[in-house]
Amino acid sequence: MPDILKSIEARDPAEKEFQQAVHEVIESVKPVLDRNPEYRHSAVLERITEPERVIMFRVPWMDDQGKTHVNRGYRIEMNSAIGPYKGGLRFHPSVNLSILKFLAFEQVFKNALTTLSMGGGKGGSDFDPKGKSDNEVMRFCQGFMAELFRHIGPNTDVPAGDIGVGAREIGFLFGMYKKLRNEFTGVLTGKSLGWGGSLIRPEATGYGAVYFASEMLATRDDSLEGKTCLVSGSGNVAQYTVEKIIDLGGKVVTLSDSSGYIFDESGIDRGKLDYVKRLKNLRRGRISEYIDKYSAAVYTEADSTLENNPLWDHAADCAFPSATQNEINGKDADNLIRNGVSLVCEGANMPCTPGAIDRFLDKKILYAPGKAANAGGVAVSGLEMAQNSMRLNWPREEVDERLQIIMRSIHQTCLDASAEYGDPGNYFIGANIAGFVKVVNAMLDQGLV
Ligand code: NDP
């Protein structure tokens, strides 16, 4: 194991997800370090794996019964070499320092790949919005922003949404920031359209992942037309992944949430997708309710005692993991390959374990790592920042066109870097190397800061 990993493990032994994310990048960039001795001399690995700043704070809030609760809030300001910190906020009971540091670390390279000027950050809380009333969510968001506002700003750090943080939460967070600072600025992205949001931002991560998948298929003279796809999750990324797959002639047969998954052999068409959007975004219901409406579909409850996730054990051509980290393990990867899947495109962040990735690369599956494939979300966040600065709103077609250009460019950048370093078509290596080189060169230009 490289020394840097040993020292990271020794320093923060409990941060397993962070170690996993660092390991993946460091393994990939070894040839870059060998070719550029000044990188090692300047200790770039030691510097890039240590956050520039970590903020942790108490968030007290009151529920509807008048009972006081305390959650923990975080913001990891990971790297600002190429722009202000940028990255989402996650509200989920599993949130801890390890998960947010892994997400912030990934974000640094992802943002570098977008071609826009954005550094990397991530934040959130172990607060669970599920089952809370709108008023409780509002009080929590206000308490969270009552501390966070000191650390963020349109030229400093610009948070956005992630798991558990959608348009409702961004609205409450923005309202409190505006009140505390007495200014209306583009300090958050993912805002609603009427007050500074960008068209296509809600769609961007899912659409972008599907655009990336189309680019990968095109390298083999293929397309999504007629392909059967497995999608996990049923939140923001999953919904718009399904929508774009349908647009491009594919068929999606699965969706999930943390309680279980549905399998709909006849395919989730536009009408069914509209139902899922209403179910998840308005009624905040469970995916199990899908079979009450569409009785031919089958619902399977999640079973944490199983070694594998049965969602990944259906005959299909493509898989779009779009729920959470480490949701495809080695066994799931074996099942996907056995069932005929030839493309895996990560909508979620780090959904495949290292064992799963090894199998995909070994079998020459078209495998897109999240830091490339799901970069469309943050890219359109960058476009939202640009529109806010100009006080302009670009039309839907213009933003979508820019998103497609950016996804094509990320795809090409990954291919070029993989070829330059002797492993053409390996998007995993390509994404890590291209993101790393851009950030490290900027760090070196700016001196020891
Ligand atoms: P949402 O909160 O909108 O949806 C998350 C979905 O994943 C829900 O269906 C949720 O189910 C499910 N889920 C969450 N945790 C688990 C778990 N431990 N096991 C099984 N299912 C789970 O989040 P997003 O769609 O925004 O995010 C999904 C993924 O995409 C995350 O990895 C995120 O970091 C990544 N991502 C998101 C971007 C964005 O723009 N939103 C940008 C780039 C990456 P339940 O409702 O039961 O919790």
TrEMBL record:
One of its GO terms (biological process) is glutamate biosynthetic process. Coiled coil: none annotated. The active site is at residue 122. SMART domains: ELFV_dehydrog. GO terms for molecular function: glutamate dehydrogenase (NADP+) activity; nucleotide binding. Residues 198-447 form the Glutamate/phenylalanine/leucine/valine/L-tryptophan dehydrogenase C-terminal domain. InterPro entries: Aminoacid_DH-like_N_sf, Glu/Leu/Phe/Val/Trp_DH, Glu/Leu/Phe/Val/Trp_DH_C, Glu/Leu/Phe/Val/Trp_DH_dimer, Glu/Leu/Phe/Val_DH_AS, Glu_DH, Glu_Leu_Phe_Val_DH, NAD(P)-bd_dom_sf. It comes from the Bacteria. Substrate binds at residues 86, 107, 110, 161, 381. The record marks 162 as: Important for catalysis. Signal peptide: none annotated. The keyword Electron transport does not apply. NAD(+) binds at residues 205, 236. Belongs to the Glu/Leu/Phe/Val dehydrogenases family. Homohexamer. This is Glutamate dehydrogenase. The gene is gdhA_5.
